[in-house]
Write a structure and sequence with these properties.
By secondary structure, this protein is mostly helical. It contains nine helices and two strands, in the order ββααααααααα.
């Protein structure tokens, strides 16, 4: 750590930390790999971007429990953070907690920091499960209906979203309303 006139000038780089983490794993040094990510978060515990970067890494490597812990840390700092709620929804849905996932999605969808394309993509991914014969299909259908309500309250101008909404209405047996 370099010190310049009493100020710490060394900052942990998220990209360097993730690279070092991967290298430690290749060397089968799991303890050092874990320490690298812990150091990144501990450097600035209130840095939500670092926490979400670590969470995204864990999501990409299918480590849902570790991803959830990083996201929980971000939500403790800022409970209404849109992207953190979107990521937590993804974790909960993957783990089978559909209702909990939609609770996080509602918070994320109300947030201006989540791009409309991300919201539309999430709905598009879930919509295929809304009308099948699984026990969760009704929960998904109702949840998607609520998400569309939130989005359209934002006076959206997104052709893809309107097309998806049309398909959603057709799936609900309302083809005339879909036009």
């Amino acid at each position: 750590v370099e010190v310049l006139q009493g100020f710490v000038t060394h900052i942990v780089s998220p990209y360097l930390s993730l690279t070092k983490h991967d290298m430690y794993l290749k060397l089968k040094d799991e303890k050092s790999a874990e320490e690298e990510l812990t150091k990144l978060i501990n450097e600035d515990p209130n840095n939500i971007d670092n926490r979400l970067m670590v969470a995204d890494y864990f999501l990409q490597t299918s480590q849902l429990e570790k991803a959830a812990q990083a996201i929980i840390g971000a939500l403790e700092v800022e409970p209404e953070h849109g992207e953190a709620n979107m990521m937590m929804a993804g974790v909960k849905i993957r783990k089978g907690n559909i209702t909990g996932g939609f609770e996080n999605l509602e918070v994320g969808f109300k947030s201006d920091d989540v791009p409309m394309g991300r919201k539309a993509g999430f709905i598009g991914t879930l919509q295929q499960y809304a009308f099948d014969d699984t026990p969760d299909s009704q929960i998904i259908e109702d949840g998607i209906g609520n998400l569309y309500t939130i989005i359209f309250e934002q006076d959206v101008k997104n052709d893809t979203l309107y097309m998806q909404y049309g398909y959603f209405l057709q799936g609900k047996g309302k083809p005339v309303e879909a036009i």
